TrEMBL record:
Pfam family, one: FtsJ
GO terms, biological process: methylation
InterPro entries: RNA_MeTrfase_FtsJ_dom, SAM-dependent_MTases_sf
Matching SUPFAM superfamilies: S-adenosyl-L-methionine-dependent methyltransferases
Source organism (scientific name): Paenibacillus gyeongsangnamensis
Ribosomal RNA methyltransferase FtsJ domain residues: 190-318
Protein name (Swiss-Prot/TrEMBL): Methyltransferase domain-containing protein
Superkingdom, natural source: Bacteria
Keywords attached to this entry: Methyltransferase, Transferase
Length: 348
């Protein structure tokens, strides 16, 4: 065992989608031999965890483990009782920052969050503004929202303020609490589009690199619209109606049918996406029957409904049902997923 493992101890805050923190905790527990201590900060979605491992080791293990339910983590380097006085809070932060002063020109994203209860009268925008000003005036650092060199995380919960600094990648997501936001466009067909946009980022895909997609359970057409925007030929299958604005696209083929009622040429598609709100086993059976149409090396992005919260079992069953043709690359509960999660597969 290395020194870090023997001597290290690190404290973190973990965030999951509401109602899935137990799964996130289970994922963390499985990654470490040393016991992990958990403490709720907001039931079902936000918790503090302490691991008897160095900070570097925890980041390495968790990133390598690619957890599905742990959406975000942030280190806790210091914590204090949260008073009502903004100036006193900023003075406390200033003392913390002096221990490792930010560099001039360093791009720092200050991310402030608070839980609904127990965060006193703290105003998140006021505190963020005050810390941004402090960083600029005292250290000539540059406050930014994105593409930061460092994230400075502040969380007010249960009457305490938690402070930590990290490189953006160490937080799993560089959005505060992993709550990635996309701008709603005028005429946007469905909120479901955000799921596919988020999946593209989360799985490091670039849909513009694909040629031809099969969208199963496509209506009203949020996913189809994104794939058309990325320049693909899209075959949309759904007995329900697609939004009329899509029907003008010359790159769209719309089959207003049940997915077990359609047939294609072998290897016709290099991308298969499926967002049916169905029982996971029925969905897997249906997708399996269409896998001949996905070319070897092709990608599949599939939303899976989590029935009765048996999340790990559900992932296992879908993965087994779709094997050996599809090989699971990553499972992730996206911020835009609700009682579901998204799987990314490659066709062998
Ligand atoms: C959650 S919606 C899909 C939303 C879509 N991804 C979007 O971005 O607008 C689920 C769709 O699956 C369709 N669906 C359910 N069973 C199906 C089946 N057997 N074959 C094809 N589509 C099906 C439903 O009609 C419904 O439109």
């Amino acid at each position: 065992m290395d020194q870090g493992a023997v001597m290290g101890i690190s404290v973190w805050i973990g965030t999951s989608n509401r109602g899935f923190a137990q799964q996130a905790q289970e994922e963390i527990r499985r990654l470490f031999e040393a016991p992990v201590r958990f403490e709720w900060l907001a039931a079902g979605e936000l918790f503090k965890f302490t691991v008897e491992e160095s900070r570097e080791r925890v980041v390495e293990r968790i990133l390598a483990g690619a957890p599905a339910f742990l959406r975000h983590m942030q280190p806790v380097e210091a914590e204090a009782d949260l008073g009502e006085d903004l100036q006193a809070t900023v003075a406390w932060l200033q003392r913390q920052l002096k221990e490792r002063p930010p560099g001039a020109g360093q791009r720092i994203a200050v991310q402030v969050r608070k839980t609904e209860e127990g965060a006193s009268g703290l105003s998140v925008p006021e505190l963020k503004h005050a810390v941004d000003e402090l960083l600029e005036q005292e250290w000539q650092a540059v406050p930014v929202a994105r593409e930061a060199d460092e994230v400075l995380s502040l969380l007010a919960a249960g009457g305490r303020l938690y402070f930590g600094r990290s490189a953006p990648h160490e937080n799993i997501s560089d959005w505060p609490g992993g709550a990635i936001r996309f701008r709603r466009e005028e005429g946007q067909i469905s909120r479901a589009k955000f799921k596919l946009l988020e999946a593209e980022q989360a799985f490091g895909l670039d849909f513009a690199q694909y040629r031809s997609a099969l969208d199963i359970g496509a209506a009203p057409g949020g996913w189809t619209s994104l794939l058309l925007e990325r320049g693909l030929q899209v075959t949309a299958v759904d007995p329900a109606k697609l939004d009329a604005t899509l029907l003008r696209s010359p790159r769209l083929r719309y089959l207003q049918k049940n997915a077990d009622d359609v047939a294609f040429a072998a290897g016709e598609f290099d991308l298969l996406v499926c967002d049916m709100s169905w029982s996971h086993r029925q969905m897997a059976k249906l997708v399996k029957g269409l896998l001949y149409a996905l070319q070897p090396g092709g990608t599949a992005v599939i939303t899976v409904k989590l029935m009765h919260k048996k999340a790990f079992q559900t992932i296992r069953e879908v993965t087994q049902d779709l094997a050996p043709e599809l090989s699971l690359q990553q499972a992730k509960q996206l911020f835009h997923n609700r009682e579901e999660l998204t799987l990314f597969f490659l066709k062998l």
